[in-house]
Amino acid sequence: MTYKIPTDVQILGRDIKSEQLKYHNKRVAVCKEFTFDAAHHLHCYDGKCKNLHGHTYKLVITMSGFVNSIGIAVDFGEIKEIFKSAIDSKLDHQYLNEVLPPMNTTAENMIVWIWEQIDLQLNDRGLSDQGHRIEELKLYETPTSYAVMKREWMVENDV
């Protein structure tokens, strides 16, 4: 294979027109991964997780939208701001049993709470009105163990 070094960069207005930036009208999902560290323990659990312990959680957010005039469906920076505001600021380096609503702090319970918090941010920022929505969340408690929440499980009778 031969590699070519570009001799010129594409210029808007000369090489491509503004109306060409949006290539399609399809819904597209984008994903962004984040980590946060937190401690917790489980109630009514007969195993080592009944003891106070910590995790580096990994959250994978899959969000979709229709591309705008420049071809972006959901801005990665916007997803980062939402995560920082709705999740990281509340859970990072915290004792989850203390900062989450009364619940057993399992990944299965936490992922629904996380969905609700992100969804509130989408509404508050007016992004839901623009067609942005969560499609799926994955919350890793360890590198090989995670909970999944999908849109069709979270929302009834939604289009």
Automatic annotation (TrEMBL):
User: One Pfam family of this protein, by short name?
Assistant: PTPS
Q: Which InterPro entries match?
A: 6-PTP_synth/QueD, 6-PTP_synth/QueD_sf
Query: Which SUPFAM superfamilies does the entry mention?
Result: Tetrahydrobiopterin biosynthesis enzymes-like (SSF55620)
Q: Which cofactors are reported in the record for this sequence? A: Zn(2+)
User: What catalytic activity is recorded?
Assistant: 7,8-dihydroneopterin 3'-triphosphate + H2O = 6-carboxy-5,6,7,8-tetrahydropterin + triphosphate + acetaldehyde + 2 H(+)
Give the record's keywords alphabetically.
Lyase, Metal-binding, Zinc
Q: What is its EC number?
A: 4.1.2.50
Tell me the superkingdom of the source.
Answer: Bacteria
Q: Establish whether keyword Zinc is in the entry.
A: yes
* Pathway recorded for this protein: Purine metabolism; 7-cyano-7-deazaguanine biosynthesis
Query: Which EC class, in a word?
Result: lyase
List the PANTHER family: 6-PYRUVOYL TETRAHYDROBIOPTERIN SYNTHASE (PTHR12589:SF7), PYRUVOYL TETRAHYDROBIOPTERIN SYNTHASE (PTHR12589)
Q: Which family does it belong to?
A: Belongs to the PTPS family. QueD subfamily.
Designated name of the protein: 6-carboxy-5,6,7,8-tetrahydropterin synthase
Q: Which organism is it from?
A: Fictibacillus norfolkensis
Q: Quick one: which gene encodes this? A: queD
